[in-house]
Write a structure and sequence with these properties.
- The protein has 436 residues and is α/β, with parallel strands linked by helices.
- The protein folds into two domains: 223 residues, Rossmann fold; 158 residues, Rossmann fold.
- The chain is built from 15 helices and 14 strands.
- Helix 2 packs parallel to helix 3.
- The longest helix is centred in the first third of the chain and has 22 residues.
C-alpha cells in the first residue's frame, strides 16, 4: 500500500485502549489518515463531528474506533460502579440493546462496515448485529434480540425490527450516519429522522455523520440531530483524487463497443469496473464481452442479494476481472486494487461521476478513470467538469483502439404472459377498470 496518504500521527499516540491498539496492529494500521487525524482526537473527547472526505480515506475506521472506545469507557464505568456489564443478561433483566447504531444507505456498505468492525474489534468483547433487507429475515431478527452492543444496518430493515419491539433505542450512546448524502438520494431521510427521534437526545449520545459532500441539506440534518458538531473537511479543494488519472474519448454510438474492447485489450486491467446507466446496457455488455473472451459479471439493482454477494466475492478474489455495474455499485463497495474505472455511459448526476471513479485509487493507490462522451450522454460532461473544477483530457480514437467485435448469441426471450402478445383492437379500446 502506498503510504503517502498517511499523516505522522500514530494511533498509539491517541487515547485508545490497548485492546483496540492490538487489533489495529494486527491489521497493519499504524498511522492515521487525514480524516482520522482530525476527527479521532475530538471524538475521543466526546465531541460530535460531521466529516467530509473522499471515499477510501479511512472514514469507516474513524467511526468504528471512536464507537469502540466509547463503549469500552461505558463498560469501565459500569464495572467500577458494580453494575452488570452490558451484553450479559441475567435472570429477568430487561434487554438494553443496542448501545450503538451505525446506519448505511446500502446493503453492500453495511456488510463492509460489519467486516471492518469484526477485524478491528478482534480483542474486544462486543456483539454486533448486521441488519439489511433482501435476505435472512428470521436469522437477523433472532440476532438482534440477543442483546447485542452494536447494530450495523440499513434504515428500512432496522425500522422494521424496531417497530416489532425486537430492540429498544432508549440506551443508544453512539450514533453514526455514513454517506448521509446518499441517504437523501435514496429517500431514506424520513427513516433516519424517525430513528433519531426515538433515541436519547443528541446531548446524551456521541454523534457522527460522514458524507462525500457536506451540502446544505446534510449540514441541516447534522445541526438538527447532533450536539453542535464540528465540521471537518478533508481536501475540499479537490473533489477528485490526484491519484486518479482521468481521460475521455468521444465515440459515435456504434464505436462504443469496439472502443471498449480495444481499451481492455490495450490496458489488460488488473481489476476493472465498467459503469453503465441501465440494466439493459449491463446485460448487453455482459453478453458481448463474454462472447469476446472476457469473464465478466453484471451487477444491477434487481440482482438478488445472495447472487450479488457471490459476484462481488468472485470479483474480489479475481475469479472475474471485469465488473459491469449500474450506480447501485457506485458507493459502498470497498474493493481493493481496482486499477481502472470505465464510464461506458456518462452518469447523468455529476456527484455519481465522483463516486464512480472513487472506486479506484483507494487508500493511497493510483488508478485510471476513462469516460466515453457518447451521443446519448455527452451533455453531462460540461456539468461534470464544472463540478470537479478541472478539464478532462480528451484523447483521439486511433484505428488500433477499435477492435473487431464478435456478436453474441441473443438471449432467450422471457415467456410471455397472457397480455404480452400482440394486442387486438378490442384490447386497445378497453379502458382500465378499478380492478386492473
Amino acid at each position: 500500500m502506498n503510504k503517502t496518504h498517511l499523516t505522522e500521527t500514530r494511533f498509539s499516540n491517541l487515547e485508545l485502549s490497548d485492546s483496540i491498539l492490538q487489533g489495529l496492529n494486527d491489521a497493519g494500521f499504524n498511522n492515521c489518515t487525514p480524516i482520522q487525524d482530525k476527527a479521532l482526537p475530538l471524538l475521543l473527547r466526546n465531541k460530535d463531528i460531521a466529516g467530509q472526505a473522499q471515499t477510501g480515506t479511512g472514514k469507516t475506521a474513524t467511526f468504528l474506533l471512536a464507537t469502540f472506545q466509547h463503549l469500552i469507557n461505558d463498560d469501565d464505568c459500569k464495572n467500577a460502579g458494580g453494575r452488570t456489564t452490558q451484553g450479559a443478561v441475567t435472570g429477568n433483566e430487561q434487554i438494553k440493546n443496542p448501545r450503538a447504531i451505525i446506519l448505511a444507505p446500502t446493503r453492500e456498505l453495511a456488510i463492509q462496515i460489519h467486516k471492518d468492525a469484526l477485524l478491528l474489534s478482534k480483542y474486544l468483547n462486543l456483539k454486533f448485529a448486521l441488519i439489511y433487507g433482501g435476505t435472512d429475515y428470521q436469522k437477523q431478527l433472532d440476532t438482534i434480540k440477543s442483546n447485542i452492543d452494536l447494530i450495523i444496518g440499513t434504515p428500512g430493515r432496522v425500522i422494521d425490527f424496531y417497530r416489532q419491539n425486537a430492540f429498544t433505542l432508549d440506551n443508544v450512546q453512539v450514533t453514526v450516519m455514513d454517506e448521509a448524502d446518499r441517504m437523501f438520494d435514496l429517500g431514506f431521510i424520513k427513516d433516519i429522522r424517525y430513528l433519531l427521534r426515538h433515541m436519547p437526545t443528541p446531548e446524551h449520545r456521541l454523534n457522527m455523520l460522514f458524507s462525500a459532500t457536506l451540502s446544505y441539506k446534510v449540514t441541516e440534518l447534522a445541526y438538527e440531530h447532533m450536539n453542535n458538531p464540528v465540521l471537518i473537511r478533508i481536501e475540499t479543494e479537490e473533489v477528485t483524487s490526484k491519484a486518479i488519472q482521468q481521460s475521455a474519448y468521444c465515440p459515435a454510438n456504434e464505436q462504443k463497443m469496439p472502443l471498449l474492447i480495444g481499451l481492455l485489450n490495450h490496458y489488460q486491467p488488473q481489476r476493472c469496473i465498467i459503469f453503465v446507466n441501465t440494466k439493459r446496457c449491463a446485460e448487453q455488455l455482459d453478453d458481448t464481452l463474454n462472447a469476446n473472451g472476457y469473464k465478466t459479471a453484471a451487477l444491477s439493482g434487481d440482482v438478488p442479494q445472495d447472487k450479488r454477494q457471490r459476484l462481488l466475492n468472485d470479483f474480489q478474489e479475481n475469479k472475474i476481472t471485469l465488473l459491469i455495474a449500474t450506480d447501485v455499485a457506485a458507493r459502498g463497495l470497498h474493493i481493493p486494487d481496482v486499477s481502472h474505472v470505465i464510464n461506458y455511459d456518462l452518469p447523468q448526476d455529476v456527484e455519481d461521476y465522483v463516486h464512480r471513479i472513487g472506486r479506484t485509487a483507494r487508500f493511497g493507490a493510483s488508478g485510471e478513470a476513462i469516460s466515453f462522451i457518447c451521443e446519448n450522454y455527452a451533455y453531462s460532461m460540461p456539468d461534470i467538469e464544472e463540478f470537479i473544477g478541472q478539464k478532462i483530457q480528451v484523447k483521439a480514437i486511433t484505428a488500433n483502439l477499435l477492435a473487431d467485435v464478435i456478436t453474441p448469441a441473443k438471449r432467450p426471450l422471457k415467456p410471455k404472459t397472457a397480455y404480452q402478445g400482440k394486442r387486438t383492437n378490442q384490447d386497445r379500446s378497453r379502458k382500465p377498470t378499478a380492478r386492473s
